[in-house]
Amino acid sequence: MSVLNKATFNPRVVSAEYAVRGAIVLRSNEYQKQLAAGAELPFDKIIPCNIGNPQILGQKPIHFHREVLALVNVPGLVDHPEAPSIFKEDAIARAKHYLAKIPGGTGAYGHSKGHEVIRHEVCDFLERRDGYPADPETIFLTDGASQAVQGILRALIRDENDGILVPIPQYPLYSATIAMNGGSLCGYYLDEAASWGTSTDELKRAIEAGREAGKEVRALVVINPGNPTGQCLSENNMRDIVQICKDEKLVLMADEVYQENVYTEDKHFVSFKKVLKDMGPDFDDVELASFHSTSKGFTGECGRRGGYMELVNFTAEAMEQFYKMVSVNLCSNIEGQLMVGMMTNPPVEGDASYESYISQRDGVLESLKRRALKLVAAFNELEGVTCNAAEGAMYTFPKITVPEKACEEAKERGMAPDAFYATALLDATGIVVVPGSGFGQEDGTYHFRSTILPPEEAIDEVIEKTSKFHAEFMDKYR
Amino acid sequence: MSVLNKATFNPRVVSAEYAVRGAIVLRSNEYQKQLAAGAELPFDKIIPCNIGNPQILGQKPIHFHREVLALVNVPGLVDHPEAPSIFKEDAIARAKHYLAKIPGGTGAYGHSKGHEVIRHEVCDFLERRDGYPADPETIFLTDGASQAVQGILRALIRDENDGILVPIPQYPLYSATIAMNGGSLCGYYLDEAASWGTSTDELKRAIEAGREAGKEVRALVVINPGNPTGQCLSENNMRDIVQICKDEKLVLMADEVYQENVYTEDKHFVSFKKVLKDMGPDFDDVELASFHSTSKGFTGECGRRGGYMELVNFTAEAMEQFYKMVSVNLCSNIEGQLMVGMMTNPPVEGDASYESYISQRDGVLESLKRRALKLVAAFNELEGVTCNAAEGAMYTFPKITVPEKACEEAKERGMAPDAFYATALLDATGIVVVPGSGFGQEDGTYHFRSTILPPEEAIDEVIEKTSKFHAEFMDKYR
């Protein structure tokens, strides 16, 4: 007799779902092993479009950042006579700066909020970005943005009567964490017909519905640019959202990890911090937690688990509790912290690494834009498929029509129709996408999320294989 | 009106305490700032003995490990013509090996359990250590051992009726995490008079007491070597513990992060995995989670946040839930994973770095042993103080007599007597220790925990300052 089985495991954990690494990904791992063992399959490789993981698909890291990491890690390397033949002079200078400011170096625990030298770099970045001062005491460096989001949700959720407003579709970190903490997810729908826009009427409806169901609605999650939906909010829209947070007493959780990833000419990223501050001192009681990460943008350093959150307008009592929560983890990993420092304080004009930095940055962003346009255009060519522009982030989220006969077969197998479609796509092509049911969607609609991250030469292959599969799938179940 | 203040914050978080980074540490941070600003204080530096953080006190990192980290991080560095003039040949070979086995390198998300190449290194290490096979599917690489412990407790605790057996004194990660998850801590006392031993009678008493209070007792935490108490369990004692877990249906949580840190000639570390397997197939239904970390031992890489857990004898259903839990975090930081790889698979005889590795390893361990002996001897010289030998781990935990008058003054200030003592010690000397009340202790007894980590020349200073302070404190309140 075991202590832990499915019936005796914490039921909040059992109820949580996380499709980005769910059944289809496990199936693709099996195929990967079979291919490695020389098996004959309908495809010769797995193309992972399920997760925003740029470097696994060949994106090169920013060279300056990596040089600094190497230099801080090897004792004495900054002063080694051969160092200048390998490392750029600004990387050596930066490493010396960090070593002077970080007691014990990368191998020691640091302050639970993160090293001050990095929190200052973040604040300087925020001030340049928003035009408003930022206080290092309000910055928490975290093991990726996921950890920060989990911390805020843990603070907010006392029991199942606490509700959190989350967009549908959403990134499943939110639904999974709310489930694990035993809270209630109050969904508000993004409007696919209006480029996945957020309407205040829909937000108010969702708040009302939550309250009618007996929930104390405590926070509003906004993902901007959107994941999986890619939309980029307008400032007008953002002001309305801040106003609702004030009127309805909601903590605003702004997931802004894709702030560097905007691909349309007529839109640009504006932070909720700036919008809130622009609205004046009347709004200094709106509590805002904003999240950023080294994993996205053009940095793409996912494996580093670097990130930060800024906590604006929280009470001193709440700040003290947040500090205690992170102190139980001692500190986030120091190299993730350094990566946050380099992301927010990159080489500037005149530095030895500046040109290479700019060329890497622009190369990645321009290429992502080309790939986003190409994929969206291709999906819109498919029978029964419509796909909004990917204004930002790293994903396309096409709406697909699943034929009646395919829906029936999916039902027989106990699968959602879009999970059935995504599984068939994997089986036929080796391409891994995540079904829309993993993110939430309006009843009766079906989608999948595909990243735009395969390298440009591979994007054509993804398009060709997906198109061929789609035509055959539609014919088979027509 | 704010959403989050102390009254509206998740009360489970509010109730949690974490003294290792508590009020005395915050006070020492303030002193640190004052010293940096040129203030005149009774001391000229802060000596942090509150936390097992070796590198902040000057312990050097293992050079091989750091070379490998540098080499894997800079694209092309392993093949750079100047690399051999800086890096040892075995470090270059190891870096090439990792780069070949880790798709996307250190900047990509990896498998949620951690990269397979590292999990295999861990299994080889476990097989050498225990003489029993280990399965990479049962290894989870984590952001330090803390994250692993938190995961197991989250799995076990459904509500306040679930009880976890925790030693008193204990490392406050356990009490804090149990509080945050809303479970119940069922304390069992270690016997100070018997070198902080664990008696089965006391364990049975604690289980009974928990059940009488209506708790379902689900797991038993054992810290071996002990933190803060430093004791090293005998195999006999461990067999009794495993038997109790079988008889009482308890998950055994074995915190073995100090397994390299044993300082007595007549004792050595034995893992619970080995003891359990030695007891034969009848015990293959005892669920064991064991934890290890790169932060302790002679590696001391705290800032890396590297660690692993091995899950033995858990059901397939439970393993699936654990996998889902970690997948929500995507993966632990890759450099922490690599550090686990190097800790478990260090240079061997014949490798270019072998001699330097051995010399660093033995140098650290021998010095820690000298420091442990010296500190314990010195504490036993103080009036009203007794201190058990630090058989292992990184701490001394002396019992102090706090005079009646000092207890009264502490009470007036709303402090525990040993917190009052530790605060006075900090104010007089700059030495930071953690009061015993932060770990739990028998009612009416008082202790503090001091690490043995200050470098040897500083240990004398710690002893001298503490002795002078202690004499004055005793005189003042006599």
From TrEMBL, chains A, B:
The Aminotransferase class I/classII large domain, residue ranges: 92-464
Keywords on record: Aminotransferase, Pyridoxal phosphate, Transferase
InterPro entries cross-referenced by the UniProt entry: ALAT1/2-like, Aminotransferase_I/II_large, PyrdxlP-dep_Trfase, PyrdxlP-dep_Trfase_major, PyrdxlP-dep_Trfase_small
Family matches, as SUPFAM superfamilies: PLP-dependent transferases (SSF53383)
One Pfam family matching this protein: Aminotran_1_2
Cofactor(s) recorded in Swiss-Prot or TrEMBL: pyridoxal 5'-phosphate
UniProt record, GO biological process: L-alanine catabolic process
Domain of life, per lineage: Eukaryota
The family this protein is said to belong to: Belongs to the class-I pyridoxal-phosphate-dependent aminotransferase family. Alanine aminotransferase subfamily.
Subunit structure, interactors included: Homodimer.
Name the UniProt record assigns to this protein: Alanine aminotransferase 2
